Amino acid sequence: MVWPFKSRFRKQIARIEITGAIASATRKRVLEALKTVEERKFPALLLRIDSPGGTVGDSQEIYSALKRLREKIKIVASFGNISASGGVYIGMGAEHIVANPGTITGSIGVILRGNNLERLLDKIGVSFKVIKSGPYKDILAFDRELTEPEQGILQELIDTSYQQFVETVAQGRSLTVEQVKSFADGRIFTGQQALELGVVDRLGTEEEARRWTAELVGLDPEKTTCYTLEERKPLLSRVLSGSRQGSSKLGASIDWLEFEMSTSGLPLWLYRP
Q1: DSSP characters for 165-204?
Q2: Strands 104-106 and 188-190, how do they pair?
Q3: Three-point CA angle 245, 51, 156, nearest 5°
Q4: Among 8, 29, 23, which Cα is nearest to 258's?
């Protein structure tokens, strides 16, 4: 699609927000927004991340798209209250990273969780008959314990995903793999500590990140505005959104529960407080 008024977009900074747990809906929205940034020929992108991370594949696809776009425009990431695990991974797609001194970041690692309800099912007299094509087809089944071979298979999967994460951070921040592994043990740290470790470039607010982004592409930071690309919601959703503000905490809890259920048994780049 050819967009009119290109000169207007060339004098603005595109802005995309990534908030909450990262899953397929986040990926679809962000990839579409990145496509729009490229089509409208914005000179730079400010990526605001306020996320504990999420699914591995979705985080990787967003990172890859950012890395491709970075060949054409400047990208600066701004870490908000929290940018941990998959949030860090996505941030590696930016050329520069700014964090608040108190931002919660880090949690570089992988987690996979399943549920074992075997004892509960025994108490209520429920059992399952499983016919499978191979010994590992029902790995992480919720009605029994993992076997030792299954634990080995899953640990190898986690280790491979972890190595991908570490290598991406090392490449993105010009660090050695050994340097990254020294703090990539699942621990969280502040933006101040992240600066000392080389994970971020500067400490500052989103406004300071915006000003820096403008300067990087030769725009006046005093006059340059951000154009935020948001998902277009249906009219009915926009009309009803105001009436649901009072139940926003309940809605967030429901969203998190849905995320937990939909990702059970999946490797996650996610900080779980």
Answers
A1: HHHHHHHHTT--HHHHHTT-SS-EEEHHHHHHHTS-SEE-
A2: antiparallel
A3: 135
A4: 23
Q: Is 137 a catalytic residue?
A: yes
pLDDT tens for 93-127 read 999 999 999 999 999 999 988 777 878 878 898 88
pTM: 0.85
The count of other CB atoms within 10 Å of the CB of residue 99 is: 29
Which tokens in the block code for residue 30? Answer: 């962000």
Tokens coding 43:
């000179």
Catalytic residue among 51, 85, 107, 161: 85
Count CA atoms within 13 Å of residue 204 on its CB side. Answer: 17
Token pair belonging to 269: 């780049």
Do residues 87 and 79 lie in contact, with contact meaning Cβ atoms separated by under 8 Å? yes
Q: Which ranges of the chain does DSSP label H, i.e. alpha helix?
A: 6-10, 24-39, 56-69, 86-91, 118-124, 148-172, 177-181, 191-197, 206-216, 235-241, 248-262
Degrees to nearest 5, angle at CA 264 with 263 and 267: 70
CA distance 208 to 79: 12
Closest CA to 92 of 20, 188, 43, 165: 165
How far from each other are the two terminal CA atoms of the chain, in whole angstroms? Answer: 43
Secondary structure of residue 144 in the 3-state scheme: coil
Which of 8-12, 86-90, 165-169, 183-187 comes out lowest in average pLDDT?
A: 8-12
Percent of the chain clearing pLDDT 70 (strictly above): 84
